[in-house]
Design brief:
Layout (H helix, E strand, L loop, with lengths): L22 H5 L2 H4 L4 H20 L5 E6 L5 E5 L16 H7 L22 H7 L1 E10 L2 E8 L2 E2 L4 E5 L7 E8 L12 H14 L4 E6 L6 E5 L4 H9 L10 E7 L2 E9 L6 E6 L2 E2 L5 H20 L12 H5 L2 E8 L16 H21 L1 H28 L26 E6 L1 H10 L5 E6 L11 H4 L3 H10 L16 E5 L4 H17 L1 H5 L3 E4 L4 E5 L2 E5 L2 H10 L5 E5 L8 H9 L6 E3 L5 H12 L3 H10 L10
Parallel strand pairs: 1-8, 12-14, 15-16, 15-17, 17-18
Antiparallel strand pairs: 1-2, 2-7, 3-4, 3-7, 4-5, 4-6, 8-9, 10-11, 11-14, 12-13, 18-22, 19-20, 19-21
Helix pairs in contact: 3-5, 3-6, 6-7, 8-10, 12-18
């Protein structure tokens, strides 16, 4: 029988659309910058800066400046040779206009102009132009300053000569753009810290280039400059500056088959693994073949050295990759004439040949270091042995903690007040500080879809403990059992029992500490929950102001001051909530648990490097960095929320 079709959805030759120019970018921005959120907004800046970095790698630029202007536009300038402005021989328009308004137009498809570059598809500058309300590019080249302005990707006029260059004036390109508010999500704005950390990374992997970031917005004026000559070796020292290290960084730089490889690594006394990979100076957060090469080399050489020197006996099993990488900080940077990335946003390197080359270079350097430094080598092997034993103990402990199935209630912790709903997408788990607040939350909740897990006191600081000790902690075991996804090698987010996990603690110092301990645990051992958008922080009120029979709630001291000014002259009663237990069940529901009224903060990892350093500083073993942070932010500590 022929398949029937809906007559209202006709599909014929008239259904075929051809999107001209940059219209495709504006229609489907996610294809070019991954999304239209705060991360994509920053990606717009890095696309333009990457073009300047390409000039630096070609030896034609040593200074880059980025300015966030008062009107939220961004200016990126460099002292490179400048984008060509002459008429293109076949397209019959200025080369500048071609680069800025045509997808897949650029000078990086062969090696005639750039031996190595990060801008490979001829898309970046044109995509930024398309997604900007307006953009202006000025080029100092061929003895003149040239300029062209665009509105949503469309030139407002031809490339014009503005003036002659002054004697000794640098050449270069300056691009200023203002993102289109009709495309990007409401309320998003540039974060100085995010850009600052990104440019610091670039300065480390592109040594001897001066990068300045300046914020000229009235509310947050500030400036930061970066210049490093030590390459990724300096980067590793920077990453470990607040950690106890076992040895000096192991470093190698070599070129094989026109592929430049630079690797630095250093073991610390901590348990966190910190790995950062770059391809043509572009951070690849999802790693790729270059990071795989380093991991393979480290595991193979550590095992070889341990066998050759009788640290591992014949009956002993080899160290696993996790054993050899625990506590390591490693940065790998490759320069490839033709890199292949997973997508336009370049989150992962895909070149198959890179893995073997990086592995060979790393193996040679690591083998030589271990043989030449037996004392340091012994420290590394000892920590791998300790890691291996702890991992075996953790495996046994984990088997005792794990539930047999996602929805089986027999192994759920006794303190958990579960909900009746069985669709995880509709379920919420409130992690509550203390039995008193837990009792109030149990009375005030909607039992149909809200579950309550009270925690007694402060959970273990998971930044300083191995997994076997973590799994011996009763509060952590209860949390793992309640979530149902497992931990470590057995973690499977498909078994998650609640799609909203909400941390609800008191608005005091102890509450902040417990919240930070929980965030540390999730960041280190269940980051997939954060990445998938399942973790939230509840916002209980600080004050209740009673005016007659009416009750007002305020959530910050600033809100409280505004409310009291509005109620000036009226008789009011004020209650400050020191803890959740001071509210009755109805008040807790109305202010903090009712989906129609509450405010939740979603926990995100916008910058993994910054988050890693923050948790290491706040919860690590070194006291001095934490003390400096507290003293620096002492006026803000009362309102500090990590």
């Amino acid at each position: 029988m022929a398949k029937q079709t809906d007559s209202t959805t006709k599909y014929d030759e008239n259904s075929i659309q051809v999107l001209k120019g940059l219209e495709a970018v504006r229609r489907r921005p996610g294809m070019y910058i991954n999304d239209t959120d705060i991360k994509a907004l920053h990606h717009m800046v890095t696309e333009i800066v990457d073009n300047s970095i390409d000039e630096a790698m070609a030896g034609r630029c040593d200074r880059i400046e980025v300015v966030i202007n008062p009107d939220e536009s961004v200016t990126v300038s460099d002292n490179g040779v400048g984008i060509p402005v002459a008429m293109h021989p076949t397209e019959k328009v200025s080369a500048l206009q071609l680069v800025m308004t045509t997808l897949h137009a650029g000078g990086k498809f062969d090696e005639s102009a750039y031996k190595v570059s990060g801008g490979l598809h001829g898309v970046g500058a044109a995509a930024v132009n398309a997604l900007s309300d307006w953009m202006e590019v000025t080029v100092k080249r061929d003895g003149y300053l040239h300029r062209q302005r665009y509105h949503r990707g469309i030139p407002e006029g031809p490339v014009e000569k503005v003036r002659k260059l002054k004697p000794g004036e640098d050449t270069g390109t300056t691009s200023t753009f203002r993102y289109d508010e009709t495309i990007f999500k409401d309320g998003e704005t540039y974060r100085f810290e995010t850009l600052m950390n990104h440019f610091r990374e670039i300065a480390f992997v592109t040594s001897s280039v001066f990068i300045k970031l300046r914020d000229e917005r009235p509310s947050t004026p500030r400036e930061m400059s970066f210049y490093f000559e030590g390459g990724v070796k300096s980067f590793v020292r920077f990453l470990n500056r607040n950690r106890k290290v076992l040895h000096d960084p192991i470093y190698v730089q070599k070129e094989v088959d026109r592929i430049g490889v630079e690797v630095a690594m250093q073991y610390t006394e901590g348990v966190a693994i910190s790995e950062y990979a770059f391809a043509n100076t572009i951070h690849t957060p999802d790693g790729g073949t270059h990071l795989t090469g380093v991991r393979t080399a480290v595991t193979r050489i550590i095992n070889k050295y341990a066998r050759d020197n009788n640290f591992l006996k014949e009956k002993d099993t080899n160290f696993s990759s996790d054993d050899t990488r625990e506590g390591i900080t490693v940065v790998v940077s490759v320069k490839h004439p033709d890199p292949q990335f997973e997508s336009q946003t370049k989150v992962k390197l895909m070149n198959a040949e890179v893995s073997g080359i990086v592995s060979s270079v790393t193996s040679e350097a690591l083998q030589a270091y271990l043989e030449e430094n037996p004392r340091e080598a012994r420290k590394i092997i000892d920590r791998c042995l300790t890691s291996s034993r702890a991992r075996d103990a953790a495996r046994k402990a984990r088997d005792l903690v794990m539930r047999k199935s996602a929805l089986e209630s027999l192994t759920l912790p006794g303190k958990l007040a579960d909900c009746s709903e069985r669709d995880p997408a509709k379920c919420e788990l409130y992690i509550v500080e203390g039995d008193s607040a837990g009792g109030t939350a149990k009375q005030g909740r909607d039992r149909h879809f809200q579950a309550i897990l009270p925690l007694r006191g402060k959970i273990l600081n998971t930044e300083r403990a191995r997994l076997d000790k973590i799994l011996a902690n009763n509060e952590v075991k209860a949390l793992i059992s309640a979530l149902g996804i497992g931990i470590g090698e057995t973690l499977d987010i498909a078994n998650l029992r609640y799609h909203r996990i909400i941390i609800m603690t008191d608005a005091d110092v102890d509450g902040s500490h417990i919240r930070t301990l929980l965030l540390t645990f999730f960041f280190r051992y269940m980051p997939v929950l954060i990445e998938a958008g399942h973790l939230f922080i509840a916002q209980p009120p600080l004050f209740a102001v009673k005016e007659g029979k009416q009750l007002h709630y305020t959530y910050t001291e600033a809100q409280q001051e505004v409310l009291l000014k509005q109620l000036a002259g009226k008789k009011v009663g004020i209650q400050r909530y020191k803890g959740l237990g001071e509210m009755n069940a109805q008040q807790l529901w109305e202010t903090t648990m009712d989906p129609g009224e509450r405010t939740l903060l979603q926990v995100t990892i916008e910058d993994a490097l910054l988050a890693d350093r923050t948790f290491d500083m706040l919860m690590g073993s070194e006291v001095a960095p934490r003390k400096r942070f507290i003293m620096t932010h002492s006026s803000e500590v009362r309102n500090l929320d990590v």
